[in-house]
């Protein structure tokens, strides 16, 4: 579920060298911060998941807090947004539009194909599809930076995919998952408005009106978000610990296929559109990495704890795979 735009990645990168860098070049301190974040964040999430599995009875009562925790994360994301982010979207409408379409076509489609091909039980199938229909994940910004991709494009695509999520995620989920479970797209729309759009817009307004005060705490925001996301993972995992143990192999296979194919097809879409290698690396991460925190919250609220399993596993896996792919791309760039 680290897929909340201010996980240790984006704010760490934004406060350093992301704006307009394109190649991911920047100060050594920002690079060290980003590398530390992308290493520590998956470990925090993994530890939280392990605690939820080991002692689920201690945390099962926390489930009602998940939407509010996600709201905290999305508010922190809004605090990192500046007018320059929105100008960057307007300056490159073709590339941003392509990233948005690729994200909301490739990942939902892959989710449906994988759920169908693996013959997943209805709850798990709906969960996999819901992960695919979620907006872009937060770690996409930092792994793009580490991969020497186009960071400005990454921030633009991730921001727009989050802002349009209330209009896109519910109907896509209804279209693809309704054959597995009943989907109340209207209620899902309202939930995304409350837990995503309102906090993000609120955070952006606070940044606009009190930017100099926000700047003083900007570097702390990623870690606040990281801890909050870890608590979300802990809560979701503890609520379905038994099911995770019973279906761990199947869920992990679905998540690895979903994430891996998303990264590959995202990169391919950038190359086919002749965006260049840095932007194609960005496309890989913006397509293949999801806001699994939102997916887990929606799955828990609208389906069941079992449907949240794919999001819980995705939240750990996509950060690990993203860091590995970013390291490989960075080395390839240097050679």
From TrEMBL:
<feature type="transmembrane region" description="Helical">
    <location>
        <begin position="124"/>
        <end position="144"/>
    </location>
</feature>
<keyword id="KW-0472">Membrane</keyword>
<protein>
    <submittedName>
        <fullName>BASS family bile acid:Na+ symporter</fullName>
    </submittedName>
</protein>
<dbReference type="InterPro" id="IPR002657">
    <property type="entry name" value="BilAc:Na_symport/Acr3"/>
</dbReference>
<feature type="transmembrane region" description="Helical">
    <location>
        <begin position="221"/>
        <end position="241"/>
    </location>
</feature>
<dbReference type="GO" id="GO:0016020">
    <property type="term" value="C:membrane"/>
</dbReference>
<feature type="transmembrane region" description="Helical">
    <location>
        <begin position="94"/>
        <end position="118"/>
    </location>
</feature>
<feature type="transmembrane region" description="Helical">
    <location>
        <begin position="36"/>
        <end position="55"/>
    </location>
</feature>
<dbReference type="InterPro" id="IPR004710">
    <property type="entry name" value="Bilac:Na_transpt"/>
</dbReference>
<keyword id="KW-1133">Transmembrane helix</keyword>
<dbReference type="Pfam" id="PF01758">
    <property type="entry name" value="SBF"/>
</dbReference>
<feature type="transmembrane region" description="Helical">
    <location>
        <begin position="247"/>
        <end position="268"/>
    </location>
</feature>
<feature type="transmembrane region" description="Helical">
    <location>
        <begin position="188"/>
        <end position="209"/>
    </location>
</feature>
<feature type="transmembrane region" description="Helical">
    <location>
        <begin position="61"/>
        <end position="82"/>
    </location>
</feature>
<feature type="transmembrane region" description="Helical">
    <location>
        <begin position="151"/>
        <end position="168"/>
    </location>
</feature>
<keyword id="KW-0812">Transmembrane</keyword>
<dbReference type="InterPro" id="IPR038770">
    <property type="entry name" value="Na+/solute_symporter_sf"/>
</dbReference>
<feature type="region of interest" description="Disordered">
    <location>
        <begin position="1"/>
        <end position="31"/>
    </location>
</feature>
């Amino acid at each position: 579920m680290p897929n909340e735009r201010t996980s240790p990645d984006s704010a760490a990168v934004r406060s350093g060298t992301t704006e307009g860098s394109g190649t991911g070049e920047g100060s050594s301190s920002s690079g060290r911060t980003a590398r530390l974040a992308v290493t520590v964040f998956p470990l925090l999430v993994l530890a939280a998941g392990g605690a939820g599995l080991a002692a689920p009875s201690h945390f099962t009562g926390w489930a009602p807090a998940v939407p509010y925790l996600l709201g905290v994360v999305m508010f922190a994301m809004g605090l990192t947004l500046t007018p320059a982010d929105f100008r960057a979207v307007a300056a490159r409408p073709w590339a941003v539009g392509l990233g948005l379409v690729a994200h909301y076509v490739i990942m939902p489609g892959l989710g449906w194909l994988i759920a169908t091909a693996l013959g997943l039980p209805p709850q798990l199938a709906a969960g996999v599809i819901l992960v695919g229909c979620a907006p872009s994940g937060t770690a996409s910004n930092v792994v793009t930076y580490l991969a020497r991709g186009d960071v400005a494009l990454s921030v633009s695509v991730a921001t727009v995919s989050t802002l349009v999520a209330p209009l896109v995620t519910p109907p896509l989920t209804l279209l693809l998952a309704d054959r597995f479970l009943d989907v109340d797209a209207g209620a899902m729309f309202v939930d995304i408005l409350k837990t995503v759009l309102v906090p993000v817009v609120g955070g952006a307004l606070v940044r606009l009106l009190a930017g100099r005060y926000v700047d003083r705490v900007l570097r702390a925001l990623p870690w606040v978000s990281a801890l909050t996301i870890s608590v979300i993972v802990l809560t979701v995992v503890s609520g379905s610990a038994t099911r995770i143990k019973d279906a761990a192999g199947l869920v992990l296979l679905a998540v690895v296929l979903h994430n891996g194919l998303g990264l590959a097809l995202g990169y391919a879409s950038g190359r086919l559109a002749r965006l260049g290698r840095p932007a194609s690396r960005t496309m890989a991460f913006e397509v293949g990495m999801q806001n699994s925190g939102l997916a887990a919250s929606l799955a828990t609220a609208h389906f069941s704890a079992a449907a949240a399993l794919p999001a819980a596993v995705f939240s750990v896996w996509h950060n690990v795979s993203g860091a590995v792919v970013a390291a490989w791309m960075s080395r390839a760039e240097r050679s």
